[in-house]
Amino acid sequence: PASHKELGDEKALLKTMATEFFEKVLHGISVSLVDPSDGSSIPYTFQIDECFKHGYFHIDGRVRHCFRLKSLVAPFAGREVRRMFPDIHDFGDCVLLRTRGAAQSIICRLPDAAEAKRFHTCMSVLHISVSLAFSEDDAAS
Q1: What pLDDT sits at residue 59?
Q2: How far apart are CA 30 and CA 44, in angstroms?
Q3: Is residue 24 within 8 Å of residue 119, measured between CB atoms?
Q4: Average per-residue pLDDT in the chain?
């Protein structure tokens, strides 16, 4: 089992990574969106609004895809992406964002597997944070 110090160090590292990610994603980060039918990809910028309510994918400032963060289902990565989209052969650098309601499936390709892991981890933290915030809002009303 991990010691209290090791757990504290891991928690601090995760907090730093998530904080840096959120600062970057407010301004926009580069990702490519993958077409699940043929595996081709197109470069986009992914951005989250300052209120942490919406995620946007845009090219040259024109929004092409938008989703409500509270509708985000936990992100998927690696083999989970391969299982859901077997036609994507190179999936190690991919993260799947899926939403409820509109049932969007957005496959993001990152520059490498390490960036994909970081993106997946931070989007998971964001998913949990937004879910908790909205469940607290629901309880208060």
Answers
A1: 93
A2: 6
A3: no
A4: 86
